[in-house]
């Protein structure tokens, strides 16, 4: 499954956030480089539609989609120079499908800031610089081969030109993700570069920032086109200790949040990975299934079982909203809201589906 790699400078709250995401109690220590081994956390994607479906179909249980986060070791600066932990850091990022950078915007004199001050732009650039330098090394190694291929076969010329263009972008200090309109990212896939991966930014903030609309807009603008999520990792951890809804609501209110930041983070992670869900429901379960955006009906069926993809005949599809409005599958059918879709149908988020297939 696809994963988001959590990165960030030491002491920005990565472990606190990761532990809250996975509810485990691994050490969140107040000193740099506390997190060395990467960890994987599988987090359910909050989806209120499932509860509603379970009501309509009288389903015995609800099975949400999940998002996988990998906590990547804390070494950042100098990683591209190679030694030991630096190599491991980059290798772990290479395995991730998207990069989730945690940025500290909370102020706390008791927690040492490795750069001495709160400066989101500088933190972003520190990470970007290491990834850019690593990509430049990869490109410099690959270019002689690409040049040779372009000399012998002219159809290989666009690949060379694209790689040269990518190098120029990196030389100017920009990530390839940020320059996505100017370079052919899919054509670079074989090089497995780091900065082509989609980025997501988590601002680990305190109440002052969380309730300050202008500051949030400024930070959102800073990282666009990437998604920005705002939360207070310490509050997120505290929320998990509370067992009554009233206390949860009060604590959220005190930091100006409508829902736990972890929900927004999980949704943004799912979105950043280019994923969407479709839904199935019956007496056994109401369930969300994960597919890439743009997946066709047979591909979607294949996520349930490979036999479903091979033997696909058609899909009976109703949008979630139409189903809820009709109140039942039978009523949706009677209202003409249930469509029969063939093998070229491209799935929409929130389609409620029943597949017909041969075995
Ligand atoms: P990491 O090095 O990025 O993994 O950072 P940790 O999660 O270990 O956090 C470093 C220190 O900052 C710990 O003492 C945390 O309790 C503290 N911390 C983390 N998030 C917050 C936050 O949102 N607000 C405050 N005040 N402290 C935090």
Automatic annotation (TrEMBL):
Name of the encoding gene: ychF
Coiled-coil segments on the chain, per record: none
Function: ATPase that binds to both the 70S ribosome and the 50S ribosomal subunit in a nucleotide-independent manner.
Gene Ontology, cellular component aspect: cytoplasm
Family membership: Belongs to the TRAFAC class OBG-HflX-like GTPase superfamily. OBG GTPase family. YchF/OLA1 subfamily.
Top-level taxonomic group: Bacteria
Keyword field contains Hydrolase: no
Name the UniProt record assigns to this protein: Ribosome-binding ATPase YchF
PROSITE patterns: G_OBG, TGS
CDD domains named in the record: TGS_YchF_OLA1, YchF
Keywords: ATP-binding, Magnesium, Metal-binding, Nucleotide-binding
Binding site for ATP: 11-16
Residue intervals of the OBG-type G domain: 2-204
Domain TGS: 274-357
One Gene Ontology term of the molecular function aspect: ribosomal large subunit binding
Cofactor entry: Mg(2+)
């Amino acid at each position: 499954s696809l994963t988001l790699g959590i990165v960030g400078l030491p002491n920005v709250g990565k472990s606190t956030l990761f532990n809250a995401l996975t509810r485990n109690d691994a050490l969140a220590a107040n000193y740099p480089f506390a997190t060395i081994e990467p960890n994987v956390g599988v987090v359910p994607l909050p989806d209120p539609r499932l509860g509603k479906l379970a009501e309509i179909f009288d389903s015995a249980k609800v099975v949400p989609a999940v998002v996988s986060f990998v906590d990547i070791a804390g070494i950042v600066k100098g990683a591209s120079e190679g030694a030991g932990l630096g190599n491991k850091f980059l290798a772990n990022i290479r395995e991730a499908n998207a990069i989730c950078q945690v940025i500290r915007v909370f102020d706390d004199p008791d927690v040492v800031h490795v750069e001495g001050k709160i400066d989101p732009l500088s933190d972003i650039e520190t990470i970007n610089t290491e990834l850019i330098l690593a990509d430049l090394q990869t490109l410099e190694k690959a270019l002689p081969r690409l040049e040779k291929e372009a000399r012998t076969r002219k159809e290989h010329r666009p690949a060379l030109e694209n790689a040269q263009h990518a190098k120029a972008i990196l030389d100017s200090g920009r990530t390839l993700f940020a320059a996505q309109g100017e370079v052919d990212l899919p054509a670079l896939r074989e090089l497995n570069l780091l900065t082509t991966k989609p980025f997501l930014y988590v601002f680990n903030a305190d109440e002052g920032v969380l309730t300050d609309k202008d500051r949030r807009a400024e930070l959102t603008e800073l990282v666009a086109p990437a998604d920005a999520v705002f939360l207070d990792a310490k509050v997120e951890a505290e929320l998990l200790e509370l067992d009554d809804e009233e206390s949860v609501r009060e604590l959220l209110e005190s930091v100006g949040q409508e829902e736990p930041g972890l929900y927004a983070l999980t949704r943004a992670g799912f979105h950043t990975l280019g994923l969407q869900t479709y839904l199935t429901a019956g007496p056994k379960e109401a369930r969300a299934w994960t597919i890439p955006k743009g997946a066709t009906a047979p591909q979607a069926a294949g996520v349930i079982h490979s036999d479903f993809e091979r033997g696909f005949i058609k899909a009976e599809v109703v949008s979630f909203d139409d189903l809820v409005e009709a109140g039942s599958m039978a009523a949706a059918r009677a209202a003409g809201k249930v469509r029969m879709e063939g093998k070229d149908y491209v799935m929409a988020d929130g389609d409620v589906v029943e597949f017909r297939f041969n075995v």
